[in-house]
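[09:14] KT: can someone run the structure on this one? pasting the chain below
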Amino acid sequence: MTPADKVIEVFGGIRAVAKLVGRNPSSIQRWKKPRSERGTGGAVPTACQGRLLAIARERGITLTADDLIMTTDTRNHVV
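[09:31] RB: done, structure tokens below
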């Protein structure tokens, strides 16, 4: 599971995440796309990470900074 997949799952979907970070749902969808298709390759943009961690903490959602880091393992799961 990539960091983008994790964030989208724990917050309840693409539209929910978009609303939380003040972006269009299409921007969040791009997080799931490979870089070859002009996506982020599963990465969550650094500009959104702090906000998402703060919201997760406020809501009692388990999400850590480690969940947002792309590792060799998470890179291998990008389609």
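[09:33] KT: thanks! The chain has a mean pLDDT of 92.
[09:34] RB: yep, looked fine to me
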